[in-house]
């Protein structure tokens, strides 16, 4: 992975303290970001080459006796995400229509329906059948983080980040997506991550949910990487045990680990903003924070325990 010295130093600053935890994929994303920031000419050259390699190939020369063929391709990210959503939506509609095949099989059926223009009657956001036959418009949700240099007017090499894939991307590319005539752009209010949100109710308000998603990014169970947007927002201290619905007592847990915490003896405490300590049923301790999961070999006893 070739980088200019400034780019290599950028990677080193971000990786040195977590070198024993960072995955190859995370490192690859960071190197690509460094290349874009510190060697924009090379990054643009690679981007053009990648665009020229876009294709969709249907391997009809290799048909199985069961009448199936393989399909491979390389797409623009926006096109790929829209296609993925369309196949998931089509699979759901085929299921509602009575098909009992697996989700993957129903996605393949939905691809054929898209090709023939014979999709099931689309459903609107309420789940009711739509009579217009108009497919939903693409949605681009932008979470924009501006560096100090950008605020000072230095926008060279300015990057966005695609939350679905956690990958950096040229801001100009994002601008092209948003400018398309079939895209609906929704502007949401800025969430203050330092604000203390508190409500006198059990239900998690949207404002608190979004705040926790941006602070923790993923399920806070040890070593879990499921994105926070697909997680439940858990009360660290259960609501029925006096725990409040607020920024200091909530965290994202995927459904499986939420159940583990509720039913199988796992417990955890918040020890800092975005940092937690977990205790297993066998009294093993783990710290989970922005750098990942760290086993704690000599834990201090939680408050109230000896």
UniProtKB/TrEMBL annotation:
Residues 207-259 form the HNH nuclease domain. It comes from the Bacteria. InterPro entries: DUF222, HNH_nuc. It holds the Pfam family DUF222. This is HNH nuclease domain-containing protein. It comes from Nocardioides psychrotolerans.
């Amino acid at each position: 992975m070739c980088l200019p010295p400034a780019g290599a130093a950028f990677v080193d600053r971000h990786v040195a303290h977590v070198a024993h935890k960072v995955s190859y994929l995370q490192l690859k994303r960071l190197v690509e970001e460094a290349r874009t920031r510190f060697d924009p000419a090379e990054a643009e050259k690679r981007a053009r080459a990648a665009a020229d390699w876009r294709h969709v190939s249907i391997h009809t020369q290799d048909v199985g006796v069961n009448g199936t063929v393989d399909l491979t391709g390389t797409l623009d990210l926006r096109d790929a995400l829209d296609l993925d959503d369309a196949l998931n939506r089509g699979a759901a509609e085929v299921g509602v229509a009575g098909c009992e095949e697996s989700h993957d099989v129903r996605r393949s059926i939905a691809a054929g329906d898209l090709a023939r223009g014979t999709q099931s009657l689309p459903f609107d956001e309420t789940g009711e059948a739509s009579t217009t036959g108009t497919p939903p418009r693409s949605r681009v949700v932008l979470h924009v983080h501006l560096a100090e240099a950008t605020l000072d007017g230095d926008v060279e090499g300015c990057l966005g980040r695609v939350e679905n894939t956690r990958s950096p991307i040229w801001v100009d590319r994002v601008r092209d997506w948003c400018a398309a005539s079939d895209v609906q752009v929704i502007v949401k209010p800025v969430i203050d991550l330092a604000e203390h949100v508190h409500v006198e109710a059990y239900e998690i308000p949207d404002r608190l949910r979004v705040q926790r998603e941006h602070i923790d990014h993923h399920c806070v169970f040890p070593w879990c990487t499921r994105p926070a947007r697909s997680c439940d927002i858990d009360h660290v201290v259960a609501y029925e045990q006096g725990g409040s619905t607020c920024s200091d007592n909530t965290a994202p847990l995927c459904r499986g680990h939420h159940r583990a915490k509720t039913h199988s003896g796992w417990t955890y405490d918040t020890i800092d903003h975005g940092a937690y300590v977990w205790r297993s049923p066998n009294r093993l301790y783990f710290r989970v924070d922005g750098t990942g999961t760290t086993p704690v070999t000599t834990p201090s006893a939680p408050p109230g325990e000896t």
